[in-house]
Give the backbone structure.
Amino acid sequence: MRFHIVIDSREQEAYSFTCPVVRAKLDAGDYSVAGFEDRVAVERKSLADFVHTVIHDATRFAAELQKLAGMDAAGVVVEANLDDVLRGRHEDVLRSVAPQAILGAALHIALHWGVPVYWCGSRQAACAFTNAYLRMFVRTLAAQGGAPDA
């Protein structure tokens, strides 16, 4: 079995990976691994999308987080630097939201749902992180005798 990243068919700004990819509807997250869609997922968020989601669409996002929380491994990657957010360097996105509210929302997600939020700094870094996260999940399973190498 070869390693294939699954990209949710609704993902509008999909990352590019060097490995084979498959487009399919995922029940949770934007990225997963073929054969493990119910065990591992990464939810991608630009900073603007993260802010909108946690502030204005929290009820819908809670349903997504509940699905992610039921997986063996799941996380939210944010294509922004937390230090920049806290210093107010994203005024265009944070017009009516205090930076501390965004931090609080990220901490709530991690502590209430058990789904970590990874501040990756940029889209490129978030893509690299997502690739490594999914591969490490499969490698960990393989080391335990439960999956092929990634």
User: Anything to note?
Assistant: The mean pLDDT is 92.
